[in-house]
């Protein structure tokens, strides 16, 4: 799954327009995300709104990462340009994010103590490939002109900069001279991603104003929705490529050279024997013939199944509608078993067969249901 976050509602809507089969996902703390897919059957996306400022963006980003365990994170929206040569509607992909409000105030002025986060190499390479091939442009609105795409640092602070000559503007220009754009949220997003095993993260911004005192005029000309649409188009293409890269997950030559591959090699000497040789193992493993013991209690197995279903729901392996229907069938099965009659067991089996159909796309859960049915029938 890919998490995409925005700060403004118009940015959110620009991304949401690329999603299909959208449904609400409610976090226990009240945050509402929406889940959908890109291009119909494309990668799954969790879309969220962080609001203005680096502090709320860090909190919501951390919440999204904990909730969805994404393979990548994208922050998408609009920003102000810091250089005259950058056009309205241009797309800026951050190579670095500066949290520029760190500093110390001394008699001779403010001395910068910034934090900076750099985009990871692989994500940067994928983004530049999309730019070179222009394949991302197919996601633009039909009547939209193709904007320029620029790669460079983005400065993220806590104020809206709308002047080219103010003390703040001069300080930013002098201290962060290579920054292409300025905004208010991506430092919080970058910080949260950094604290989560260096989660691949990209910031994609469309230029909606020049941060020079003309913001009211450019907003009046609807540059915010235009810039948001351009950023969303590039971000959607990047999300699809990141998801494909994550699914394929090739082992690099460097990792192979260091023996860091997914291949497992066991060597047995003398009278020793290799019992099992495997890479990643999920679920239970039995070596040899299992002992002939009494089958697990169906009631206990149902309780375990309910727990596994809840975990699958949290991991987005099961959607909300399927989860609700599956919970209902488990309840019917449990109540029927509690009757301790042949008729009750038959009703439980029927409910579990319906449940197996509901969970057919999740192989592990469907197999668990089959095991419960077998236990009820007394099949070892």
UniProtKB/TrEMBL annotation:
InterPro entries: Nucleoside_phosphorylase_d, Nucleoside_phosphorylase_sf. SUPFAM superfamilies: Purine and uridine phosphorylases. Pfam families: PNP_UDP_1 (PF01048). One of its GO terms (biological process) is nucleoside metabolic process. GO terms for molecular function: adenosylhomocysteine nucleosidase activity; methylthioadenosine nucleosidase activity. One of its GO terms (cellular component) is cytosol. Coiled coil: none annotated. Residues 2-238 form the Nucleoside phosphorylase domain. This is Nucleoside phosphorylase domain-containing protein. It comes from Planobispora rosea.
